[in-house]
Amino acid sequence: MKPLENQIAIVTGASSGIGEATAFALAAAGAKVALAARRKDRLGNVKKRIEDIGGEALLIPTDISVRTQVEAMVAQTQKKWGGVDILVNNAGVMLLSFMDKLKVEEWERMVDLNLKGVLYGMAAVLPIMRAQKSGHIINISSDADRKVFPGSAVYSATKAAVTWLSEGLRFELALEKMPIRVTSISAGAVTTELAKHITDKDIFEVFRSHPPIEFMKAADVAEAVLFALTQPRHVDINNILVRPTQQAT
Fold it and tell me: Which of 10, 144, 155, 225 is catalytic?
């Protein structure tokens, strides 16, 4: 038996980066994986990779900033496989900018995806997990949840909210003795597409001022997800802080 044999998982932002790596890792561990993201063509590539190793995947184009689409994503997964055991809330954006640039639409986009999208996902799966008296919610946060640097004010705020939402939900479920686990993963520097969407070019001057380091790969974060998911049922990994060895802050 594989460690996640017959578990039913949803991974948001599964079309690239940490989401793609996590979806593949869960499938390799035996889970059936619903792949959610906006880019249907990229999702198709991930689905094929999973099927090539004998896994099972469901493709669900989803914009997690739209509550009805998140609810439909969860309903479609439940209809296909009969439940939801794992939700990996991974989709998000990192639109760093200096506050005086007043990129209000980008601030709103981060709140919509990084925060409200996570809330919509938790709200959609909790009734299912409560009914089946089992489940695991993993929210991908960032080490920016505990620090702020020039250009990260709004991004750090959204990630701090994700980490504390995770802890708040975990606390409430523990008080109820409800066997649903909640984990946040605070990831440091990872090689993904996130930085490509930054429009404030002055931010790249900040990047250039940092000494070069070897970034983590998306698969490294996926391994942290797998670690949390494969603990004994009585063990809840509350938060994982994972950073590159060379990352000082």
Answer: 155
